[in-house]
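Section 3.1: Structural characterization of target chains.
Under the original work plan, the team committed to producing a structural model for every single-chain target entering the pipeline before any wet-lab resources were allocated. The record below documents one such target. The sequence was received from the expression subgroup and is listed exactly as submitted; it comprises 50 residues.
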Amino acid sequence: MGSDLLTMIGNVGFPIAVSVYLLVRIEGKLEVLSTSINNLSNVINRLERS
């Protein structure tokens, strides 16, 4: 039972760790992308008013 549990943790733990790492990295990139889109929207709105 003990070795089965360790094997299961070993098989499942690595994919979970990689998924968490990638989600954290993507979250930062999404924040930068959102800021860029908002800046672009503001510039377009200013150009339309001119």
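The two ends are 73 Å apart (CA to CA).
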